Amino acid sequence: MKSSIKLNNSALENPVLAPEIQHFIQDHIGADITRLALQKNPFPAVSWLEILNQIAAKTKSKEKLPTWFNATDIIYPAKISIEQTSSEKTALYKSQIVSGETLIDLTGGFGVDDFYFAKAVKKVIHCEINPELSTLVRHNFQALGIDSITCITGDSTEILKTIPEKLDWIYIDPSRRSDHKGKVFMLQDCLPNVPELLDFYFEHTDALLIKTAPILDLSSGISELSHVKNIHIVAVENEVKELLWELSKGYNGAITLKTVNITNSGMEYFQSTHKESIADVQYSLPKKYLYEPNSAIMKSGSFDAISSTFHVEKLHQHSHLYTSGKLIDFPGRRFEIQSVVPYQKKEMSQFKGKKVNITTRNFPDSVENIRKKWKINDGGDDYCFFTTDVNTNKIILICTKIKNT
Prior knowledge:
Helix content: 25-40%
Strand content: 25-35%
Strand order of the largest sheet: 3-2-1-4-7-9-8-10-11
CATH architecture of the largest domain: 3-Layer(aba) Sandwich
CATH superfamily of the largest domain: Vaccinia Virus protein VP39
Number of strands: 18
Distance between the termini: 53 Å
CATH class of the largest domain: Alpha Beta
Shape: globular
C-alpha cells in the first residue's frame, strides 16, 4: 500500500493528524499492538512507533476519556500517560468542588481535570514542565473548542511567582519520585513537595485541592498537611481511584470525610467526621440482611458512623459488616442471609467442588487458602462471608446478592 498523505495545516505540525493516518488509527482501535508492530509501516514518512502509540493510547481512552476518543484531530501522549491521568468521571466530580474566577493547575499533564475545571471556573491555567506534552495539550484544547484554558510551559513554582493576582484555587497532583507500587509513601516524597511549599501556595490562594493516590494513608496525609477541611475519597465501580485533599487557609476545625462511589447506575455518597466518637454503635448476631460498605467508605474508616447513620448493627468491632432485620438502601453491597454456619470441618464439606463467591472480613485465613483447603471453586450465585461474630465465633454467612435499584 503506497502512502499518499496530504497534510493540512494541523498535520504540518504533527503528521499523525493526516486524514489517512487518522483513518488508519480509527480502523485499528483495539488491535493487538504487538502483532501490528510486525507489519510493514504503510506510512514510511511517519514514525511507525508513534502511529502504534496513537492506536494504543486512543484505545485506552475509549472508556476512560470518551470526549477525547470521540473528538477529531486529537493527539495522544504515551499510553502510560493515559493510564495515569484522571478519568472523565473523577474529573467531573472534582469540578463540582471548585468555583470562582481563576484556577491554576500546577501539574497539568494531559489536561483532563482542567477540561472539567473550565466548566466551573472562568479562567484556568495549565502548567506543564514537559514542552512536548504542553504543546500537545494546547492543540487538543483547541480541537475540543476550549478557549478559557491557558497553557504555560515551565516549572510551576516559577510560573506561580509571576502571577500577580490572587487565585481562587490552586490544584496539584504531585507525582511520587519512586514508583515502587505497594510501598507506603509520604507527600514529602513527591514532586512538587507540597508540605514544604504549603506556605508559599497560601501566599497565592486561600484554597488548595490536592490529588493523591489512594495508597496514601489518611492519618499520614493529615499529619503532613495543615488547614485540611475536607478529604474526598473517590471510587469508580467500587475501586478507589483517588484521594482529594481540600485545604482552606486558616482552617483548623474538624475534618470532614466525603466518600463517593461512582457507578453506572448512579453515585453512592456518604459523609462523616474524621475520628469522630460515636456513642450509639450497636452490635448483633446476623439477622436477615447483610451489608458490606463500598471501597470508598472502607478507605475512610468510618465504620461506627455507618452503623449510627443507617441504624444497622455491626457483627463485630473489626468485621466491618452490618446487619438488619429490614432491608434498607445502603452505600455498598446488600445481601439476604440464607443461613449461618460455624466454621467447622463438618460444615465445610458441603462446599467441596462447588462454585462460591468468597469474601473474608476479620478472619484468620485468606480467600486463596480457604479455596485450596476446602476445594471450593470461584463463581456461582452464592456469596459466602467468612467472618467473626460479636461472640468471637468464626462463622460463614451464606447469602444471595440483592441488586441495587
